[in-house]
Each structure stands twice: as structure tokens, then as C-alpha cells.
What we know:
The chain is of the alpha+beta class. The chain has a domain at 50-108. Helices cover 28% and strands 19% of the residues. It is built from three helices and five strands; from the N terminus they run ααβαββββ. The N and C termini lie far apart (53 Å).
Amino acid sequence: MACLKPLPLLWLLSLLPLLQSCPAPADATSPATTPAPGTQPYGLDGTFQTEDILTLQYLSFPQSYTAIKDRFGFPAYRDSQADYYKLPNGNWAAIYYDSSGNAIAYSFSDSDGN
């Protein structure tokens, strides 16, 4: 039995190079779908109903900011990258804009609010 005790230690040591070569945690590659903490409310209702969700899903992009505003109204929150609309289930829809102000994509937050 005494000669078996070093084996677990050797086994653990053999895993050390594998553990050291693990990549760093992944960073998010897209903006969040929820308003960032401290984002100022836009001052309006900014909610989506079921028909708005369906319309957004079938909308072809890009769209002008005016077209989005005219169809969905003003958002609940807005920052330099996106408009945020509250969904009936408490989650969020984000409509993302490029540097020229055209809507280029959208996403919905999951049940965790991300």
C-alpha cells in the first residue's frame, strides 16, 4: 500500500500543465440586452406588446431610427448603442444601432435578464 500513495500525487502533477494551459474566461462579444446600471430612463412607456415582438422578429435590417420610432414608439431606456423596450414577461428587447444611426440588429434578454 505504501507504494500506491505517490501515484495520486503524480497523477495530479500530470494534470498541472493541462490546467495551466486553459484559456482565460471568455469576454462578451456583443452588448448586453438589458439597460446598463445607471442608464437614465427615456421618460416614456417603452414597452412591447406581443404584436410588437412578432413585428420585430420579421423586420428586415437595416432600418432608420425614424422608422423604428414610428413603429414602436420611444424606448424605455436608450444608450449610445441601443434602445431598450420592456417585454410583457419582464425581460427586455434591445434594438442596436450603428454609428450612422441605422438599426442593424435586435436581441431579447433571457430569463436571467442578460
